[in-house]
Here is the input.
Amino acid sequence: MTAVPQERKLVTAIPGPKSQELQARRLGAVAGGVGSVLPVFTKRLDGGILEDVDGNRLIDFGSGIAVTSVGGSAEAVVRRATAQLADFTHTCFMVTPYEGYVEVCEALAELTPGDHAKKSALFNSGAEAVENAVKIARAYTKRQAVVVFDHGYHGRTNLTMALTAKNMPYKHGFGPFAPEVYRVPVAYGYRWPTGAENCGPEAAAQAIDQITKQIGAENVAAIIIEPVLGEGGFIEPAKGFLPAIVEFANDNGIVFVADEIQSGFCRTGQWFACEDEGIVPDLITTAKGIAGGLPLAAVTGRAEIMDAAHAGGLGGTYGGNPVACAGALGSIETMKELDLNAKAKEIESLMKARLSAMQEKYEIIGDIRGRGAMIAIELVKDPASKTPNPEAAAALAKACHAEGVIVLTCGTYGNVLRFLPPLVIGEDLLNEGLDVIEAAFATV
Ligand SMILES: *Cc1c(COP(=O)(O)O)cnc(C)c1O
Here is the structure.
C-alpha cells in the first residue's frame, strides 16, 4: 500500500531527467492532440502529495482535475477495488447484473438533493453522462432543444462540444456540431456591466427572454448548467440566478439538469453545489470525484424522467464497471467517515484568507471566488479595467510548477488560476502550497 511521505521535496529540476526521458518517448508514441499541463511522470499519489519518477514530491492542488478528492490511493478505494478485481472485472451490466452497480445507484438516490423517488444510470465519463441526460430529457419531454450557458463546459464528444462554450482548445476544427443547442447569458458577477449586486436577476431575465423569444419554451427539452462553472473560470452564478432559471424550467415543463461533474461529491463543502440555494434538479450528472480516480459517471434524477427512455435505450459495454463501482463505494465511505464536506469548508476559509491577504499586495488579483476546495483567482491587468491577464496566469502556474506545486489554469480568457486540492490534504501542505503561490507573485 502506498504511503507517500506528506512533504514537498525537490531533488531534481522539474521535470527531472527520468520524466524528460519518458516525455521524449511519449512524444514519439502519443497523439499530439492529447496535452499535459506538466510533463512530470507520476510514480505514486497519496494524500496531498504526488511523487514523480525522479523522486520529487509535489504538492497537489489539482487532484487530476477534481477527481482524487479522497486522495490518489485512498485506503477504502484500494481495498474495495482490489477485492472486486479478484472476484471479477466485468460482466457488462446489460448482460448479467451485479450488486455494486445497484448499491452505487442507491447511494446516489440518498446523497443527491430532494426526497422524491430517484433512479440512476451509470456510465464511464462525464461527457457520456451529459449526453445521456440529454437523451433522457428528450425522451421524457418529446422536445429537442437544449439550452446551455456562456462559459459552460460539458465535455469533448460531439454533442458535449456543442454544449461547451469555449472554442480553443475544445472545439476548434472539430465541427460540425450537434444541432438544437442554444446558448444564453450566465450571471458572471465580476464582469456584469451593472455590477455583481444586480447580476443574478438581470442575467436570469436576459436568459429567459432569449429562450422564450428565440427558441420557445415549449420546444426546450433541457436546461443544463454547472452550479459552479468549472472550466469556464470557477464562476459562481450570482445569487438569485439559479432559482429563477429552475422556476422557469418547472413552469414550462423543461428538465433542469445540474452538471455537478466537477462541483459534486464534497468538492464545494456540500455533497452537491446546487444545495447552496436549495435547488433540487430534475437530473444531476456526476463523474470526476465520484470514484476516487476510477472512471465512473452517473445520471441521477426523478424516477419518472429517468424511466422515460425505452428499455435498452441507455447503457454501454463498460458503463458502471464493477471495479469502478467498488471505487465509488470506497470513495463515498471515505467522504462520510472523514467528513470531507467539513474539510472542504476548512480549506475554503484558509485559502480565501491567504488569497485575500495576497490581493492587498498584488492588484492583478481581480477576483477571489469559489466554494469549498474549488477556489480560484481571476487575474487582470489592473482592477479598474479588468482586462484579462492570461500571461500572468501562465507565468504564475509555471513558477509554481518549478517549485513543486501543481496548479491549473482555466477560464474563457485563460486568466484564472484554480485550486482543487484533494480534500484530505494536510493543513501544513495547504499553507506551504500557498507560500509558493505567494512567492510566485513576487517573481512575476
Ligand atoms: C470534466 C467535466 C465534464 C466532462 O467529463 P469527462 O469525464 O472529461 O468526459 C463535463 N462537465 C463538467 C462540468 C466537467 O467539469
